[in-house]
Amino acid sequence: MTANQFTSTTTSNPGRKFFKCPKPKRNSCGYWQWEDEEYSDSFVGKLMSSLDAFKNEISNLKNERHTLKEEIVALKGINQAEMNKVLKMRVFMMISWALFVGFIAASIMK
């Protein structure tokens, strides 16, 4: 008889494959074995190092996002100030042209 393959769903061995007797528990021969070798300490250590590296990268990205948000707020303020200057300049130009046209019209009518 061939053993059935299963995938562990436990928190201590998530996704790890194992074999066990295909018979129901009451009639089982008790056969049970991991498909792979047990995780080595070096493997777990590498995973923990990778996790720490990812945590550092996430922290760095959060700091960079915060800095970018501050820069955007500053640029919006500069942009608003520039728009106010442009608006004032347009009003000045329109008044200047109105006065110029008024003087030309007055000089023609004399």
From TrEMBL:
The keyword Cytoplasm does not apply. The chain crosses the membrane at residues 91-109. Residues 1-38 form the GRF-type domain. It comes from Anisodus acutangulus. Residues 44-78 form a coiled coil. This is GRF-type domain-containing protein. The keyword Transmembrane applies. One of its GO terms (molecular function) is zinc ion binding. It comes from the Eukaryota. Keywords: Coiled coil, Membrane, Metal-binding, Transmembrane, Transmembrane helix, Zinc, Zinc-finger.
